[in-house]
Amino acid sequence: MEPRVTCLCPKSNFSSLTNLKKLSLFSPSISHSPLVKSVNMVCLKTNSHITSSPIRGCLVQSSLKKVEHLISEREHSLVKIKRKKLAVFVSGGGSNFRSIHEACINGFVHGEIAVLVTNKGDCGGAVYARENGIQVLQFPSKKGEPDGLSTSDLVTALRNAEIDFVILAGYLKLIPLQLIQAYPRSILNIHPSLLPAFGGKGYYGMKVHKAVIASGARYSGPTIHFVDEHYDTGRILAQSIVPVLATDTAEELAARVLKEEHKLYVDVTAALCEERIVWRDDGVPLIQSKENPNNYC
Prior knowledge:
Elements: E1 7-8, H1 15-26, H2 28-31, H3 34-37, E2 43-46, E3 49-52, E4 58-59, H4 61-79, E5 84-90, H5 95-106, E6 111-118, H6 124-131, E7 135-138, H7 151-160, E8 165-168, H8 177-182, E9 187-191, H9 206-215, E10 219-220, E11 223-226, E12 236-239, E13 242-243, H10 250-273, E14 277-279, E15 285-287
Helix pairs in contact: 1-4, 5-10, 9-10
């Protein structure tokens, strides 16, 4: 079967393809626009010449210029914003931590993970951090473990590392008030249900998904919220809906919710690092659209 592709016009600039990839990397929302979707092409490099696959359509030069203009605007806006330093807190494997780290590396998140904080020094997230040259701090301190930090020492360490934001990604300890006060409106957490439902002390991991199924709820999904001194009661910033199927087990629902968590947390972290979080007069946080600053979600 003939491949489903389009091609470049003979006079098109191949450098624009590189920029198109770059644009998709920076902004998946832009890459799914009709303009960029139309560039569904495959090019073959032969003997240092670029040739196109069988013709089904043509990307005109003006479209490439529009793409390059979007890239230029995106990069110009980020030049004005300082690259943010993040501290991520984990207690387990840290799959959300890994997703955010990868997004930082590939440029979608305008930040870097400078510190990983964990209450379990041998957890999967801590191992991954050490393998990738990320400083690991143990908190809170435990009896018989001299490397554990007190709250005051942790705040000092984060300030010395010039941390801008704290991201909780499966960290099961309550965040102390001293840390919250040191980083007001700068600590995010993700929870695997649509808060305020199925949240609070004791609701974590598979317990959440079992409770959702037992309740008969038709929808679940992750919630990202700012952190206050209680479990899961801070201001909600973003949510993503996941249908609960009639035949779902807790494990099946958990897998689908986790997949949404990875997407949502990366998108929200990107907005945070780009300073697109806006607080309404009544204290509700909103995310400013990247493409249209007059739109919020």
